[in-house]
């Protein structure tokens, strides 16, 4: 492989099509699915797997390929050494293979090509699931690269589900990101998805367990990009930016490295938490405070692009509400503050590993220009922190969702079983 590293980046966008109550209900249903200790997609893995074993099995490829290679569509095997002290290589300041993603105000989507010639599908980008599938909107079009495996696929997401058939096909994420023989689901039925064609699953590979018949697990798109030598490290860097308008191309996925043109600090990495069920996903340990004096929680949870809000365990959420003086808005189901209360709000501080990320008052509110889309009142101030639905101590006490990730660069590193964060030019933005 050439020593020159090409930034494999993909711009993307989002579309706000749901009111706040629907967003909150979807996020909370998804959280309950996570809390059950089940995959978003299938039955819980064997209880014989220890917590430590789970930690490595979900994120270290040495075990993935030794034990699970029989499930790979191409039948390939092999081992990949891991180095827990390493990090994805940093990219340069130019991203020649950049792929835009669209900001929808709820989640992010990107255009993915399937087949040859490729049909373009608009897929949700989801770090909380690992199956890639199409057919919820635009129907699957078979080409010369399409191969039916004869297997069925069934996935439940808490707030939605799909079932259908497994194919292998060529998947094109960008000019330099082409994957032959990628396992994809082709939906015959799909519920809970509108204005999108399916999901690009970029969570840990073991989340595919039990979702495809006659198969233990199936490689994700990131697995296959790494295995075929397209990317030097099995990682994904995600850059989001706050927005005040819908459908803006203001996000970027970078496969295999860190795009330092999007960051204003080094990336600080922390290992995947050992706490269950958070360790099934991109789970981390963090201490969260409001201002300098009010600690909200010190526990484990997950980072999830598929969740819109910042969800906190009920007792932490109540402490946050008390500290801000916010009241519950019955129309939207979100907390709201007056202009005076907003002017007196303090930053939240996310202590993750050796770094502290400051989440300013402006970052804690929904963009006021999008209040109408929320079903809210013009000019009213709504907060993006909501109730997870269970008290602290469940092994998954927070979800740092889309609203949090718009202020920081995040890295999901399978090779080294870690999650990383860096500040960006938008960490302190006054856009809301």
Automatic annotation (TrEMBL):
Compositional bias annotation for Basic residues: 55-65
Q: What InterPro entries is this protein classified in?
A: Aspartic_peptidase_A1 (IPR001461), Aspartic_peptidase_AS (IPR001969), Pepsin-like_dom (IPR034164), PEPTIDASE_A1 (IPR033121), Peptidase_aspartic_dom_sf (IPR021109)
Q: Where is the composition biased (Polar residues)?
A: 76-85
Q: What segment(s) does the record annotate as region Disordered?
A: 36-98
Please give the superkingdom of this protein's source: Eukaryota
Instruction: Specify whether Plastid is a keyword of the entry.
Output: no
List the CDD domains.
Answer: pepsin_like (cd05471)
Record-linked Pfam families: Asp (PF00026)
Family named by the database record? Belongs to the peptidase A1 family.
This chain belongs to the protein called Peptidase A1 domain-containing protein
* Organism, scientific name: Agrocybe pediades
């Amino acid at each position: 492989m050439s020593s020159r590293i090409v930034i494999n980046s993909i711009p993307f966008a989002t579309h706000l099509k749901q009111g706040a109550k629907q967003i909150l209900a979807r996020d909370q249903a998804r959280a309950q699915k996570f809390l059950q200790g089940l995959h978003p997609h299938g039955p819980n893995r064997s209880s014989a797997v220890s917590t430590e074993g789970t930690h490595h099995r979900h994120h270290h490829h040495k075990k993935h390929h030794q034990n699970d290679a029989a499930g790979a569509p191409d039948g390939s095997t092999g081992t990949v050494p891991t180095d827990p002290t390493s990090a994805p290589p940093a990219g340069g300041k130019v991203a020649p293979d950049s792929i835009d993603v669209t900001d929808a105000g709820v989640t992010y989507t990107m255009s993915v090509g399937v087949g040859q010639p490729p049909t373009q599908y608009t897929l949700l980008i989801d770090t909380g699931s690992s199956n890639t599938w199409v057919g919820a909107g635009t129907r699957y079009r078979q080409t010369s690269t399409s191969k039916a495996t004869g297997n069925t696929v069934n996935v439940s997401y808490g707030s939605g589900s799909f079932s259908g058939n497994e194919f292998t096909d060529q998947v094109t994420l960008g000019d330099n990101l082409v994957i032959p023989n990628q396992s994809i689901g082709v939906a015959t039925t799909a519920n809970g998805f509108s204005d999108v064609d399916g999901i690009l699953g970029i969570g840990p590979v073991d989340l595919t367990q039990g979702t495809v018949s006659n198969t233990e697990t199936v490689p994700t798109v990131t697995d296959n990009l790494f295995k075929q030598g397209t990317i030097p490290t099995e990682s994904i860097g995600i850059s989001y930016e706050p927005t005040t308008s819908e459908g803006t191309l203001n996000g970027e996925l970078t496969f295999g490295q860190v795009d330092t043109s999007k960051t204003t600090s080094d990336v600080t990495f922390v290992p995947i938490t050992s706490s269950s069920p958070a360790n099934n996903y991109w789970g981390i340990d963090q201490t969260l405070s409001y201002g300098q004096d009010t600690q909200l929680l010190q526990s484990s949870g997950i980072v999830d692009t598929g969740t819109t809000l910042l969800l906190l365990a009920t007792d932490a959420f109540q402490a946050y509400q008390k500290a801000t003086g916010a009241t519950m808005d019955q129309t939207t189901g979100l907390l709201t503050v007056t202009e005076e209360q907003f002017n007196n709000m303090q930053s939240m501080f996310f202590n993750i590993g050796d770094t502290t990320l400051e989440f300013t008052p402006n970052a804690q509110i929904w963009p006021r220009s999008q209040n109408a889309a929320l079903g809210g009142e013009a000019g009213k101030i709504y907060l993006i922190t909501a109730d997870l639905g269970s008290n602290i101590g469940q092994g998954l006490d927070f979800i740092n969702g889309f609203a949090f990730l718009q202020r920081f660069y995040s890295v999901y590193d399978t090779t080294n079983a870690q999650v990383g964060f860096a500040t960006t030019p938008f960490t302190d933005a006054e856009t809301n």
